[in-house]
Amino acid sequence: MQNSALWDKYVKTRDKQVKDQLIIAYIDLVKIIAGRLYNNYGNHIEFDDLVSYGIFGLLDAIDKFDPTKNVKFETYAYIRVRGAIIDQLRNLDWIPRSVRQKYKKLEEAYKTIENKSGRSANDEEVALTLGISVDELNDMLSDVHSFTVVSLEEKILNNANFAIIDDDINSEPQQYFEQEEMKGILVDSISNLPEREKKIISLYYYSELTYKEISSIMGISESRISQLHTKAIMRLKTRLEKIS
Fold this sequence. Notes:
Layout: H1 3-13, H2 16-41, H3 47-64, H4 73-92, H5 97-117, H6 123-130, H7 134-143, H8 145-159, H9 173-191, H10 195-206, H11 211-218, H12 222-243
């Protein structure tokens, strides 16, 4: 049975067996999302655990999806599945305290420099502020990478579900404008990133490439991609917090 036929039947009957078929039809979407997150968190969590967390999001998406809206289920489910995984990771408090402390020091350094100068902080300025070398700064960026990704996604998810693109302004006007505002703020913040960081954000989140693929395109190592990604996320989170 095609997915459209499954949806027609499920909407009319809410039959558990049909729901099970929908789960099977979309389980690969959960695995894809879990796989992308596993690339970031693999040192701290098992892939199968991420899939398990994502299935809760898939179930929620199936229950709440309205096929009459002008939104593909995959688009709608993406934020639900990813959000369920992020929520569970946060609840597990899986980030070591030492990593959180490093993150706070880095965040404060970037925030202080960028608020004072009105531009993106460079490595030398951040290292000087922290009293460390640039090499030590890069090591810190690598250490806190997983936490920064979770931190930014929580910030975005908590402000507005901008990735659930429901352009029906008449259904929920306030939510619509909040989504549009958040999308505008995020796009503007990304456009003001240093060029390499902007490119990495675009390739990772919009083109959905892996670090390995981005590394090949940009001609720099995967570890350097990770460091630049971390810096970009830290800048974005600082700017979102300033605006909100």
